[in-house]
Specification:
The complex is a heterodimer of chains A (170) and B (285). Chain A has 170 residues and is an alpha+beta fold. In chain A, 44% of the residues lie in helices and 11% in strands. Chain A starts with a helix and ends with a helix. Classes of the chains: A alpha+beta (170), B alpha/beta (285).
């Protein structure tokens, strides 16, 4: 399944939603929850294959960059954040070649789902969206690194907010 | 007199051999990975996927699948007891060896590993496909038993091995062996309360047996590692362990099929059982 089909079901930009997920992410969750397992896997593969599109582009500038290889990760993951004057976020993620498929998919989903989300909303995204997307079948102890990308995004968003507070800009 | 050939050379096939046998109806190629979606991204044409977690383990209790479920799996992937099974996968065939070991528990006879695994196949520019094959179901008979006693060690066996200082190999990373960390480097913590190793165990990380291209080291190098340097003997009963029995499946394959050790058992409870067991003895430098 192609991720582009998401747009047929509704904009992945910010939409009003009663849920606690930013609108774009909620749309993706809704789509996945409607899919049978096999199509869910196909959609995840499609997202994973699109992960390079969410890497920083040459010449692109960011407010914060955090590139590192953590001890519990198989490869380097870079998270890049740009924040607009109205506090909306743009995330880019770079992934080393050893990063697992599910993590690639999740990076792609989060970059798309949190695009133009409010900084504060990013900090409040609960991790319970992961099993809603990938299904209980794929949630295992060793797949828990799928939560890692969200943790890193929240981490860089928190650093940005703290710096704003320190400089009195918030 | 030492030979330059593996003890059971038939247990290992090359990528070229697999490429020549892609359409052989008597052969089934099986991919088994740690990366749960890797098969879906592209696999060897005609290969089937065996998910180490979902297909090979009991869904509720910590144990392997039952003989009935094994027969169900075998029927689903369209094999008979006579089919030659060739396993391959990511991480230097770590999970392929795990799958092969589980199939050994049920007595399937002709089990092989594709040397170099998925990495080598891709590095050689060989074909991958996303097309999933659909083989007619077979009537694979339910195995009479699971061969736990032959190739599997339990907590009590390992405790005895430790107390009697019998051959015991810890295949985890040096940091895990020393108790400095309780998870694999580059992996999440999987719930272990204590660090260290089973008293008497010698440390031989599983990957010591592999080359940079994911193939197995030549037999003389393997002999040097396990026999000459550490004194393990092919006739000794040996127990291997890691965290959940998967990395030690790789070492089990090396010792049993490549070096010809007669009796090697995999303690699949491994450190996630031992490191959580009340009063289990632990050695920590």
């Amino acid at each position: 399944m192609d991720c582009g089909k998401l747009d047929e079901l509704g904009s992945v930009g910010m939409v009003e939603s009663e849920s606690h997920y930013p609108g774009g992410l909620q749309t993706i969750i809704n789509l996945f929850q409607a899919l049978p397992d096999e199509e869910k896997r196909e959609a995840l593969i499609s997202y994973a294959e699109q992960a390079p599109k969410w890497a920083p582009k040459p010449g692109e500038t960011f407010d914060l960059e955090d590139v590192r290889k953590d001890e519990e990760c198989t490869d380097t993951v870079g998270v890049f954040l740009k924040v607009s004057p109205d506090q909306r976020t743009v995330f880019r993620v770079s992934l080393g070649p050893q990063v697992q498929t599910l993590t690639r998919a999740m990076a792609s989903i989060l970059c798309r789902g949190l695009d133009k989300a409010l900084l504060q909303d990013v900090l409040e995204v609960p991790g319970d969206f992961v099993p809603k997307i990938i299904g209980a079948d794929l949630v295992r102890a060793r797949s828990h690194t799928v939560y890692y990308v969200l943790t890193r995004m929240k981490g860089i968003a928190r650093v940005y907010l703290n710096r704003q507070r320190v400089t009195g800009n918030s | 007199m030492a030979t330059t050939e593996y003890a059971h050379p038939e247990a290992l096939v090359s990528t070229a051999w697999v490429a020549e046998h892609l359409h052989d109806p008597n052969i089934r190629i099986i991919e088994s990975n740690e990366d749960v979606l890797l098969y879906d991204t592209g696999h060897i044409p005609g290969s089937v996927h065996v998910d180490w977690h979902k297909d090979l383990n009991d869904p509720v209790i910590r144990d392997y699948l039952s003989p009935e479920h094994f027969a169900g799996l075998a029927r689903r992937i369209g094999i008979t007891p006579e089919t030659t099974l060739v396993f391959y996968g990511d991480k230097s065939n770590w999970w392929a060896c795990y799958a092969l070991w589980v199939f050994t528990l049920f007595g399937h006879k002709d089990l092989r590993i594709m040397n170099g695994g998925r990495d080598k196949w891709i590095a050689e520019g060989r074909e991958l496909t996303k097309e999933k094959p659909n083989y007619p179901a077979t009537d694979y008979p339910v195995p009479a038993k699971r061969n736990d006693q032959e190739i599997r060690a339990f907590f009590a066996d390992t405790l005895q091995w430790s107390k009697e200082r019998k051959p015991l190999i810890d295949v985890r990373s040096p940091g895990e062996f020393k108790g400095e960390i309780t998870h694999m480097p580059e992996y999440p913590q999987e719930g272990v309360l204590r660090g260290g190793h089973v008293p008497g165990a010698k440390s031989v990380p599983w990957k010591t047996a592999t080359n940079a291209d994911s193939t197995f080291k030549p037999v003389d190098e393997l002999r040097k590692i396990y026999q000459e340097n550490l004194g393990f003997k092919p006739d000794d009963e040996t127990v291997v362990y890691c965290r959940i029995g998967e990395r030690s499946s790789h070492t089990w394959f090396v010792l049993t099929k490549l070096l010809g050790f007669n009796k090697v058992r995999n303690y699949d409870g491994s450190w996630t059982e031992w490191g959580n067991a009340v009063r289990a003895p632990i050695e920590k430098p």
